[in-house]
Task: inverse folding
């Protein structure tokens, strides 16, 4: 449990506390919460900044990559002074600049195997901000095994999508139900290969942060199904995602 909020914390989070769906109790749950953010690039940047600003008490940011000049078009947690730095370390510094009272750990390696399983099991919510199917499948399997909710986002070209997979819901699907491994292989989702318009990652990353805040605070109802956004038309679409009984990860 986090200590009781002092006057400074009450003022800092006052605009959230006044929301009936969050209130004091929800803010205290945020302060006691732990979010694992895998990927500190286009999606992970707004996720890390908004979760820290909103008062999530503990963040673990994981990314093995270094900041490059081409990242700065959209990865808002990094600046020119961060070129060559590890992305998790750079994002940690930016998030602490917003909220120095947040406990933030930078994991400067690629999380995989036992390290990934341990990091997921230690978190209350996991946000997948990666860009390859192999990473997404590994994170999904670790979340299913640990029973930890997963907030998955993707953004490429002008198209974005978001889904929440909660293993605590006996009827809920997992990422592999939506994208069966045999159908996708290890196809790259990289912006370096396909391009992406800058604000799109901010839109999807903010959506991910909102869902994580809801899950941690108990506000509202977690997102269900798959939401997609077409940046060229400004249209959102929502699709129901049933659980696949033949899913290799969560099926019977």
Result:
């Amino acid at each position: 449990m986090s200590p009781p909020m002092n006057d400074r914390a009450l003022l800092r989070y006052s605009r959230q506390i006044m929301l009936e769906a969050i209130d004091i109790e929800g803010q205290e749950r945020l302060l006691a919460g732990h979010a694992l953010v895998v990927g500190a690039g286009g999606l992970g940047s707004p996720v890390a900044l908004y979760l820290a600003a909103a008062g999530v008490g503990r963040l673990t940011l994981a990314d093995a990559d270094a900041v490059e000049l081409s990242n700065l078009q959209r990865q808002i947690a990094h600046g020119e002074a961060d070129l060559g730095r590890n992305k998790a370390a750079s994002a940690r510094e930016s998030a602490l600049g917003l909220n120095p009272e947040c406990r933030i750990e930078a994991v400067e390696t690629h999380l995989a195997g036992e390290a990934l399983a341990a990091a997921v099991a230690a978190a209350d919510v996991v946000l997948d901000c990666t860009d390859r199917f192999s990473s997404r499948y590994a994170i999904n399997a670790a979340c299913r095994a640990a029973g930890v909710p997963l907030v998955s986002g993707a953004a490429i070209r002008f198209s974005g999508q978001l889904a929440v997979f909660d293993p605590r819901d006996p009827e809920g699907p997992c990422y592999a139900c939506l994208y069966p491994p045999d159908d996708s292989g290890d196809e790259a989702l990289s912006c370096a290969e396909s391009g992406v318009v800058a604000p799109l990652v901010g839109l999807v990353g903010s959506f991910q942060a909102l869902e994580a805040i809801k899950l941690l605070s108990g506000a509202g109802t977690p997102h269900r199904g798959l939401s997609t956004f077409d940046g060229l038309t400004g249209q959102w679409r929502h699709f129901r995602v049933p659980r696949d009984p033949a899913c290799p990860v969560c099926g019977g």
